[in-house]
Design a protein that fits this description.
This protein has helices at residues 19-45, 48-68, 74-98, 129-135, 140-151, 156-163, 167-184, 192-208, 211-217, 242-255; strands at residues 218-227, 239-240, 260-267, 270-277, 280-290, 293-300. The longest helix has 27 residues, at 19-45. It starts with 18 loop residues before the first helix and ends in an 8-residue tail after the last strand. Residues 1-15 and 113-117 have low confidence and may be disordered. By secondary structure, it is an alpha+beta fold. The protein folds into 2 domains: 13-184, no CATH class; 192-305, Nuclear Transport Factor 2, Chain: A, CATH 3.10.450.50. It has a 6-stranded mixed β-sheet. This is RNA polymerase sigma-70 factor (ECF subfamily). One of its GO terms (molecular function) is DNA binding.
Amino acid sequence: MTDRATEPAATHPAEDPPAEARLAELAAEYTRLRPRLVGVAYSLVGTVAEAQDVVSDCWLRLTAADAQEPVRDVEAWSVVAVARRAVDVLRSARVRREEYVGPWLPEPLVDAVAEDPADRVTLDDTVSFALMVVLETLTPAERTTWVLHEVFGMPFPEVAAVVGRSPAAVRQLAVRARAHVAAGAPRVDVGAAEHRRAVEAFLRAVGHGDLAGLLSVLDPDVLLTSDGGGLQGVARRPVAGADRVARFLVGVRRKMAADERVVPLTVNGGPGFAVLAGATTRFVCSFTLRGGRVRRVDLVVAPDKLPR
């Protein structure tokens, strides 16, 4: 996989297709690739809007590059171009996130709200919301290496071209990234039936404000993180421990207005729910299981990260 053909295409100028036909051909191929490209960008930057901006920007770069020298492998060129641009955005975003009020969580991907199939993000099943949170703790180079190699299968020499390191250095980055991910991302170690029962019990307890019911499904070391971007009434520090997390969730439930309702959803391919008031999303919750109990709860309340 390369980001651009290193040699001119073996065609005579007279055989080149008309500019309009070539542009239409590129557009069709790029549209086909768009879900994958947005997935690459989202995995690196953590927000859908920035990922879509990256992909749109790289479309303009593709047409400009192809006008100078035909791009023979559009998919290879596009994946590398998107990854490089996403790394630039990630490095800039890290500075802004250090000044963010309260914890910063990725934008949740809620499968029920994607209206345009071309904008639906395509990710490997292993990229859960909890894993996206862990990826935030990696350096940009480590995150890029892990995402491109582990999730999208890019060989190390090509990852090296994206991050600007040697293949040997990239292999070391991969080792460190794997260790961080293994230490930080909870493993899914329950069967489908047990998983479903735990999800139903959690949602039932939250929906009824049942403190005892919540305690029965929460891991003793459960951690709850809220991302409100400075909004009032949102915990600005993680809440740790089953009793404190259960009381926090029951308190949230008690504050819900009469017209607000809990709706089960799939968040980044895993279990979760949203609280809706009419057609407005108030917040999205993702939770992660370990040993049949909820080990992590992530609440995204910041309005600019919520599905419309």
